[in-house]
Amino acid sequence: MSVTTTMQMPAPSAVxxxxxxxxxxxxxWAFACGVVSSGLPLGPRWPVVVAGIVLCGPLLVATSQVxxxxxxxxxxxxxxPHRPIPSGRIPGRWGLWLAILWTAMSLALASQLGGWVFGAxxxxxxxxxxxxxxxxxLKQNGWWGNAACAITYEGFAWFTGAAVMIGGLPDWRIxxxxxxxxxxxxxxxxxxxxxxxxxxxxxxxxxxxxQFGVDAAARLACxxxxxxxxxxxxxxxxxxxxxxxxxxxxxxxxxxxxAMRFLAAPIAKATWFSGLGxxxxxxxxxxxxxxxxxxxxxx
Length: 299
Known about the structure:
The chain is an all-alpha fold and 299 residues long. The chain has a single domain, classed as Farnesyl Diphosphate Synthase. The protein is built from 14 helices and no strands. α3 (25-37) runs parallel beside α14 (266-293) and α8 (142-166) runs antiparallel to α9 (172-193). It is globular and about 60 Å long. Residues 1-6 have low confidence and may be disordered.
């Protein structure tokens, strides 16, 4: 590779495409759930909340996307040559430099938002690199890779939103529901694997559809999504939040109805179920966050 090609600056449009803004929504929504669940008004905290949203989406998740595309550049050159790195629109080693730069910026901002936020961000960044980078490459196994994505996209983001508002460790009920919705998100990540089964087989990625077959993986994804929500319903009822528990129950029943159609044709309906079923799932998250808000910040 020539020095000229290596030193060439990537176009801003190519960098933005590499950062994948469409992937920022799930953690930003989870962060909003954390903010709501704290039970505290925005008031003078709104600049910190804005900083937290930037941290969760445009920095942390964007970092994970750049890291993933850099270490997948050889596979993408075969399967998706139009992507910014294999197409040459992000030339030379710019993909790696951008991954390092975004990691540093994420840590710098997180360090200004408190110790608990910094710790969650640091762990999330470690998982982002381990997910894609050899020799670990958690993404090679559907159990580990999906777990890393689920906990960072949902649990850490929710925790961060609450910690930013509270200025410390959130109430145990907040942490519990953040963990439960992270566990359910493992099933959501499995839904995403149905669109790349052929490529995963060719490249040796042991996604759950590859490991267990299409039908078994589809059933597993639905069960993994549903069981934590059942636990949430039980907890909300035990915390004297019957209305919120009823709403989450109705959302879960609606997911079940959609799941029946998905299970009848997993490959054809995976994207459809991911769009509609996950929408109901995240509405349940916000409902649960509102239920927690009544508890307010811990004493």
